[in-house]
Amino acid sequence: MRAYKIFMVPRCLHVCESILEQEGVFGPNLIEDLNIGFIPLDQDIISLENPALLNSVFMEGDFTWLHTVAHSIVGLQTTFGTIPNVYGQGHAAKIVESLTNTLTSELGEKKSPLQHQIGHLVVLDRDVDYVTPLCSQVTYEGLLDDIFEIKCGVVDFGPEVTKTEKSVKTMLNSEDSLFSEIRDRHFTNVFPYLSARAKEIQANYDKSHSMELKDLKTFVSSELKGLKQEHRSLTLHIGASEVIMKHKTKGSLRRGDLQDILHIEHSLLEGSDFRECVNYIEECIHRQYDMLLTLRLLCLLSCTTSGLLPKDYNNLKHKFLHSYGFEHMLTFFNLKKAGLLTEAQTGKDTSIESNLNKLADSRTVGSAVSYVTSSLAALQKKDWFRTVSKKLSLIPKPGTEYNLKKPSDMAYVFGGAYTPLTCRLVEQAIQRQGWGGLEDVLRHLPGSNFEKLEARSAKAGKSASSGEQASKVALVYFIGGVTYSEVAALRFLAKQKGYRILIATTAIINGNRMLSSFVETVR
Amino acid sequence: MTSVKRQPAPVSQQAEDEYWGGSSFKRFNFDEDDNNEDSIEKIQFDGSTATPLSQKYESTRNHATSYGHGERSYVADTPLSSTPPNRAMSARSHRPNMPKKQQFPPSPATLPAANHEPVKSNNSQHSMSITEAVAVHDKKPITSATSLAQLETEINSLRRQLTQAKRDRAAAPSVSDTLKRVMVGDPYVLELYKSKDEKAKLLDSAINRHDGNAVVAATLFMRDTLKRDIFSKELMSRPVAVDHYCAYLREAGEIDELHETLSALGRTEEAAMLKYKQCLASTATTTPEIRASGLKDCIKYYFDADIRLANDTSAIFEQISMMERQSAVEDGDSAAEKTGQVMVFKSHPRKESIIHKPVIDTLFYCCYYHWGEAEGLLSSPTSIRNQHKISEKQFMFTAVAALCRMRRWRDIENLLTVPRTLFRSSRLQAVIGFDRVVDVLSKNLAPGDALAKYCAEIETSDKRLEMAVKLKCFKVAIDTFVYQRDRQQLMLYLDQIPQANQHMRQYCSNQLRSQEIKWKN
């Protein structure tokens, strides 16, 4: 008889136990919890690498995974001290906060004897800002993720990049000094840097030709290895940049030019040329462009305009089903449930349809308004995106030139067209030490907000020096995933304001990965 | 809710048995018993009992702690100050804290589980009571044998107490205690919550703690132990529980139950979508006919009833008619291909079947192989266009691409030509704009002359110039520069024309020298 052991990551659920029990295989010592916790992807990014959470929390309203999120925060606090200031926005964030408190007391984790090393914790729900991940990314790392897909900090460059038969897997993190220099740059600033670097390396190689034997020896033993490594990574990144350039100017059968797409996205963000945008999306459908691309633009249209007009919604859906298959009726339904692609409620309550709606609603039992439906209602606040972006000045006034070479704010990650909403919230929360004065804005965002302040920064009183240091360190937790563009923006913010920002997330996402978790694939 | 589905009662009974007789717990007990016996021996030999008892306690504690994580058993954390009987009990029982945190006084009605116990653990019961007896007596030292009778009565009374304690143990621990165990991953029993109020309280507390796992556990426990309609009523009044329950049902694949729940909640759209998905999934490998009949049932039972789903209903009707068309066309074409008589299938072999493909894919296929067929035929592109209300633009995009692939230039020209009318001669016109036409053609790898022909038709000169330069339609580009009277740019453009193309270079130079053009620069 063989003995088995089951390791449950990150923990054993009641359902798992009862299934094992029902199958008659439950036994002593069968199950162990294996709580992996955070996986460090870089010096400043830790991730649970659980992309399924997005779907289960924000579409199904199932909180089971939030336990894992809270557990990871508890773990961090045991190591680095209890974080005194906590700010959060969103339904899930609120739950995580309360779960963290419960877990801390119930696991009996001792208060760390260390002084806290992290001063602020900002917890944000993904559904607070779906707009940012829906935009095409234009930082180098973001483009790599959009085009080649980065998995757990590793990218697989195919033959078109390596220009050989083989494909190469490369780690992308700050250990590669060249990469850490270009990763967060706007793409237009990557190529000039790479070519300057190439010249430098060439010069270093050339130096060796004119060297004395003795110097040559030290050169080989000390510098050559580093040069070779840099040379290798330089070749790869130049290859990758070339592929990206191709994407930018040359569409294919399945995809329009990136430039056109960017133009449409910027119009959507600004709220200008609405008809042109709808027409472009319609063309994407007509030409059967990549489904996720089409869907991404559709969702962006819906999110920035608080839902499509019924006429547009029905028209686009009808065409979409023709082009990509009727089964995507299910995809549309999922996206509606998640609040990503909705039909705006028209003001006319007299229509037959809304009466029917009312009739159906009154028949439902009791106050059975679930999380799913209530979050939908929150998103349908009219023109919330316009209001919020005006109040937080996320979108520059049209006509202002943006200097991408020397960016002055976080908007550079989208070519100066848009400052990610989440990053602006983080900036404000840390600066103001709470949400005070932002009620006007937060009211338009889904979910509730909260703040817990235990250590106002050293402005007034003189706290211990370590506390002062800690007040410059912030942990930002994205529930539901973060994009590389947001990471880049937060890194920029940290550098600009002299903070140290650590990013914790449940997964690294981009528009395509986010949407594909809602797409139904029945054939 | 018509069909009442219930988990069979034996399961929960069995679960209960498994808990009480569960080997993981039993083994733990034996260890504890050994400990007890050890301590008895020590007491007897030493004569003094205070120290060994605390040692025993320590060892129990350590023991339990060391097992705590490994065996998913729990950590005994009885405080040292508790009275000896309690302490002994705690070493024995599965719930050390129980006696002290007891909140529900045991009532005879809630005690069935106790019946399993006494026979099984007679031995330990004896050793226990002796331990207790000694423990109790350590305060007033035994001086002589005369107190033996006294001791006897003491033992009897303690036995009674113990039986009582045993009964207590079958009562449920406090809700918060259980939920805490669920949250930190310790073993727990829900079967002891017998009354409906207790069950409801368990669920409510789980919801308040936001512990999804506990919410699911409590909900499923209620489903297994309450009558169907009572369970429904309790569930429906708790939206969070509903969400979790639905998520569970979806994961577990209990589609019928999920459908029933959603319908009861009035979430008809979701319920209908669920059935639609189930129908597609279950017919994925069958013939289109079977799927079509499944979809028809789906509409009849789940979609038709709700007017709000009218759009989706008509989409499914379209899907059915498309499937019928696809299977007819597919049958016809594969038969034709097999005969080997039809040229087009020889020169352009069919790649994959069109069954279950989207409408536009089918339209493309029909444009490719069946262009120009009469509308009466199912394979005619025109008939698809009319039946599915394909928009003019959509049709153009698809037809131009398909015809370009087939290299049917004449047909493309006809498609883009507005016939002669009384007032105007025939002319080229494209609803999608000629820039799009050229784009589609170039992406479908059309040859240069075809591109040039339509490139010249692009409506705005700027766009025309852009496309002409990009696609190297030299003549169109030169003509457009001339049209814009931009001599400077034309001179620069001359350099871009390759040396090999002498003809075009000549044409360009001629234009530059031309006297008739009024250059703007």
TrEMBL record, chain B:
It is found in: Cytoplasmic vesicle; Early endosome; Late endosome. Signal peptide: none annotated. Residues 383-504 form the Vps16 C-terminal domain. Its main location: cytoplasm. Residues 1-124 are annotated as: Disordered. One of its GO terms (cellular component) is late endosome. InterPro entries: Spe-39, Vps16_C. The keyword Transport does not apply. GO terms for biological process: intracellular protein transport; vacuolar transport. Keywords: Cytoplasmic vesicle, Endosome. Residues 1-14, 46-65 have a biased composition (Polar residues). PANTHER family: DEFECTIVE SPERMATOGENESIS PROTEIN 39, SPERMATOGENESIS-DEFECTIVE PROTEIN 39 HOMOLOG. This is Spermatogenesis-defective protein 39 homolog. It comes from Phallusia mammillata. The lineage of its organism: Eukaryota, Metazoa, Chordata, Tunicata, Ascidiacea. The gene is Vipas39.
